[in-house]
Amino acid sequence: MTDLATALGMLADPTLIIVVLASAVYGLFIGAIPGLSATLATALLVPFVFFLDPLPAMAAVITMSAMAIFAGDLPSALVRMPGTPASAAYTEDAYLQTRAGHGARALGVALLGSVIGGIVGAVVLMVAAPLLAEFALQFTSYEYFWVAVLGLTASVVISEGSQVKGAISLLIGLLLATVGIDIALGYARFTFGSTDLLQGISFIPAMIGLFGLSEVLRGVLRPGGPVHVARLRTQGMFRETLHTLRRYWRGVVSGNAIGSVIGALPGAGGDIAAWVSYAATKNASKEGHLFGKGEGHVEPIVSAGSANNAALASAYVPTLVFGIPGDTITAILLGVLLVKGVQPGPELFNTDAPLLYGIYLIFILANLLLIPLGYLAIKGSSWLLRVPTSVLMPVIVAFCVVGSFSINNGYLEIVIMLVLGVLGYLLERSGFPLAPVVLGLVLGPIVEKNFMQSVIKTNWDLSQFLTRPISAVLVALTVLVLVYPLLRGLVRRRSAVDASG
Amino acid sequence: MTVEPTSAPTTGVPWRHDLVGGLLAAALGAAVVLHVRTFPELPDGQPGPALFPGIVGSLLVLFGLVLVVRGALDRNRVSADPDAGVTVQGRLRALAVLGLVVGYLLLAETLGFALTMGVLLFLLMWLLGVRPLVAVLAAAATTGFILLVFGELLLVPLPQGFLG
After folding, report:
1. Which end of chain B has the lower number of beta carbons within 10 A, N or C?
2. How crowded is residue B141: how many other Cβ atoms within 10 Å of its Cβ?
3. Helices (H), chain B
4. Cβ contact B3–A223 (<8 Å)
């Protein structure tokens, strides 16, 4: 109880309130610009939060991302371009709804659906994280090794498209993580004589490059023409929205459930949650034939719109309990926390309970704040969408440069940002997903450290990796994750044969 | 949410991209495997610093080759051209973006942050088609904002150059 009181006291800090409000406005702005993702917004925010204490830093990222994911729905409904990839699943429906004169309702549903999703995700985090943490207290280096391997495996298996490409992306991330002093002998690897590289590839400039610069490159290569922004009438929006949410309450429930589960998987973010939720709702709905056609349909906005925000919060479960990020936003945040000396893990639940209560409260606060600010954003959305990208892109590049520099006051960081920016662009262009690169970069050192510690203390007795009970369960889970695509393929083939026969 | 990287179009690229991507990955992996052979071992002859990058390199070779084979087997697939819609101007604009970063790296220490960033921002906006007056104002406002927030508020020692 005293921890909760301490957390509440921390929330009353004026600095924190200013940080939350400023990051909320920033999140709404970036989220509403088509092509700029919440991950990019996080990467650009990091140089600022780097200078804050851990709780305000997390508050900034949490508030900003909740706002950005909702704001991504604005251009979906108004110009048929998802503001963030998390809105892509139901962009067609939202836009068709606007064309049919139901734009305000579609956005109202997206707004309240996001708020409900965010709060449910936060409750899942509050309940699941401490339970898992208690279990994880029994973990030793063996179990941590397997948890990290499980995270890496899951990130590849759930990669959209080719899993071989997901694996290559992951290996590139793991390779980048080996640059610098090694854990076993202190030997300098892949530094090519540079003393600056001894400390390894700085994580934050790497993220700024992968998500910031690469996105700018994509943006300037294919600039969109002038866009026609649809008009909205927001009168009676909330009344109609509440009525719609009552009518499609099943969609709210399933969207939240799907979002909460998928968000907690390493490497799967809200965009995957939104797609899965869309497909599940379409299969289950009596009105599935209306999805994406004619006037569009509000049901997928209800379910997928809550799923992406629910995933946002549940991604913090593995991040806080195991130090294994659930999505790219938490991956970036994890990098910041580690630099600031906060080591996420089960011990955190005993040693820094006020910080955790603070995080839970921030989630609730951010989502409640989304109601008035989101409403204002809907009212001002046509103005938001008129910001010219030809001005915005150079400004983002300037922030990428200064943001990378400010982490260590060094030019090497700018070079890392530049190189990874080009690499990120080339990888995505050839169909290699970027999320596994990040996971590799974050989890590589964890995998190697725990492996080397384990083998050195047992003089290379590898049997311990398999015979310890929790290790054995984690190995079984990893194998299950690995064979899952094969099983799914077999089942599909069987049902296709049955259907044709 | 997010997270965008996972939403990248991961299918539908021409098979040549798989071929080139796979070969590059395999070549990188092979280079890593060869390089780590020079790394020292642990005192009792057990693998040390070379172990982890060695495994990663070997897997890169393996998956790179798998991608090459799959690309070759699937060479008749219908795929969208990832370069569709990219014009010469588009490429020039992308080069200009990279030019801004490289230009900053080369000039910032000598000319200082304000002058270098201000001029480079103006040039880039102008190249992207922003009217000169708007470009001057936007470049000045951005530079001023960064100086204020990063330089004054967050105390980042931005390069001062000859003016400082």
Report:
1. C
2. 13
3. 15-36, 51-73, 88-111, 113-127, 132-146
4. no
Q: Residue A225 — pLDDT band, cuts 50, 70, 90? A: low
A354-409 pLDDT, tens digit each: 889 999 999 999 999 999 999 999 998 877 777 788 898 999 999 999 999 988 88
CA atoms within 13 A on the CB side of A305: 35
**pTM of the entire structure?**
0.87
Chain B residue numbers touching A62 (CB-CB < 8 A): none
CB A344, CB A319: distance < 8 Å: yes
Q: Is B86 on the interface with A (CB under 8 A)?
A: yes
Whether A187 sits inside 8 A of B154 (CB atoms) is no
Contacts of A171 in chain B (CB under 8 A): 25, 29, 56, 59-60, 63
- Locate the chain B residue with the closest alpha carbon to A37: B4
Q: Compute the distance between CA of residue A207 and CA of residue B161 in angstroms, rounded to an integer.
A: 28
Q: Tens digits of per-residue pLDDT, B54-68?
A: 999 999 999 999 999
Distance between CA A330 and CA A348 in Å, rounded? 16
**In a 3-state reduction of DSSP, which class is residue A434?**
coil
Count Cβ–Cβ pairs < 8 Å, chain A vs chain B: 286
- Flag if B52 and A178 touch (Cβ within 8 Å): yes
DSSP secondary structure, A457-489, as one string = HTTS-TTHHHHSHHHHHHHHHHHHHHHHHHHHH
Residue A423 in contact with residue A212, Cβ under 8 Å?
Answer: no
Whether the CB-CB separation of B81 and B115 falls below 8 Å is answered with no
- B69, amino acid identity: V
Quote the distance between the C-alpha of residue A7 and its chain's center: 25
Q: Which of A393, A303, A300, A373 minimizes the C-alpha distance to A66? A: A373
List the one residue out of A64, A115, A122 whose CA is nearest residue A333: A64
